[in-house]
Design brief:
Layout lengths: L3 E6 L2 H9 L8 E3 L11 E2 L1 H4 L9 H7 L4 E3 L3 H16 L5 E5 L2 E5 L10 H16 L3 E6 L2 H8 L7 E3 L5 H7 L10 H9 L5 H4 L4 H8 L1 H9 L16 E12 L2 H22 L3 E10 L4 E7 L7 H13 L8 E11 L16
Parallel strand pairs: 2-4, 7-8
Antiparallel strand pairs: 1-6, 1-7, 2-3, 5-6, 9-12, 10-11, 10-12
Helix pairs in contact: 4-5, 10-11, 12-13
Length: 356
């Protein structure tokens, strides 16, 4: 049985800015966007989040929610340096690290370098090292698989530490709202609610074939995951290469229908390139660059590989429609796929595996 830790930095960009600039500390802060209402928020501090300000929200909407909101331009070079330091801390305990972004990663500490043995103790030490060496806080989730560890890291933010052991996984997932399940976006959650699925316990009433009928390949993932079945290993050599397409527009776009049209075009290009490459992918990323040149990305990873252009198109549109754009002008859109099939291939969780 694996020992998995998911580390997620707390309001990463905003926390770095508050650390480096005393005038931002304790105040509602948005990284990205501008006080004149243009652009979008990339990350909001916890002081701003209390007012409902969140990432991908228009500056105009953020100011309506929080009139005293401060804005600062993102410094990605600094964030990358901090991220590299965090990785050196991880490496003290294990080489099996799967970064998901600059501010989060999975660690497999089943066999830790220092012989500590307890994944919970390792998570505590990592959090303390990040605090002492970088003056930042991180939240950690600890469990026996990636899915549960990732959910656990979000339960007590900021500066949280949550352990969900094997004997508690099934009950925990049964009580969990489906909106909190990794891979369930707004569109999928709405469809589940229409089917009477509000918690993991509700989801378990559906057979595997019923889940596949309603949700396609994702249905198979949901069927297994709500039963605590997740065999995916932490991949230290996680593939970062991608196949994609993007387009900068002659005139900035703001109407949702125009944006949908462009996403459909890009999805077709991506599928054709993926098909010609002979590879299979299961992660899709939508890139949005705004008129003020700030940008955001949103990704979704499926359990199975994409099998059609329509599937890529549907997921890209779902990512677009989940953004709170408020008719903000957009100068560029991009769609990429990644997380390619390895030579060994990836297997679905074993339906017979029990983690309790």
């Amino acid at each position: 049985m694996r020992k998995i830790i998911h580390i997620d930095m707390d309001a990463f960009y905003a926390s770095v800015e508050q650390r480096d600039f005393p005038e931002f500390r304790g105040k509602p802060l948005a990284v990205g966007g501008s006080p004149d209402g243009r652009g979008v928020v990339a990350t909001a501090s916890y002081e701003a989040r209390k007012f409902g300000v969140k990432s991908a929200m228009s500056s105009r909407m953020a100011l309506q929610l929080c009139p005293d909101l401060l804005f600062t331009y993102p410094r990605f070079d600094v964030y990358k340096q901090v991220s590299n330091h965090i990785r050196t801390i991880f490496l003290r305990y294990t080489d099996i690290i799967e970064p998901l972004s600059l501010d989060e990663a999975f660690l497999d500490v089943t066999e830790d370098k220092l012989g500590i043995g307890s994944a919970l103790d390792i998570a505590r030490e990592i959090k303390e090292a990040i605090r002492e060496e970088l003056q930042l806080t991180a939240s950690a989730g600890v469990s026996v698989n990636k899915f549960v560890a990732k959910i656990a890291s979000d339960l007590q933010k900021p500066d949280g530490l949550t352990f969900i052991g094997p004997s508690k996984i099934v009950k925990f997932l049964e009580q969990l709202p489906v909106d909190k399940f990794f891979g369930v976006g707004k569109v999928t959650a709405k469809k589940m609610h229409q089917l009477g699925i509000f918690t993991g316990k509700d989801l378990k009433r559906f057979s595997e074939s019923e889940m596949i009928f309603h949700f396609g390949k994702s249905g198979k993932f949901f069927f297994h995951i709500v039963r605590g079945e997740d065999n995916r290993p932490v991949k230290p050599n996680r593939i970062s290469k991608s196949i994609g397409a993007e387009d900068t527009f002659e005139k900035d776009l703001r109407e949702l229908e125009d944006l949908r049209t462009e996403v459909i075009k890009l999805s077709a290009k991506v599928f054709n390139r993926l098909d010609k490459s002979g590879r299979k992918a299961k992660t899709i990323t939508l890139k949005v660059k705004f008129a003020d040149f700030t940008q955001i990305t949103r990704s979704k990873t499926m359990l199975d590989y994409f099998g059609s252009q329509q599937e890529i198109e549907h997921l890209a549109l779902e990512l677009l429609e989940n953004l709170d754009l408020q008719e903000i002008k957009i100068r560029l859109l991009g769609v990429t796929v990644s997380n390619f099939q390895t030579s060994e291939g990836d297997q679905l969780p074993n339906p017979q595996l029990k983690l309790f």
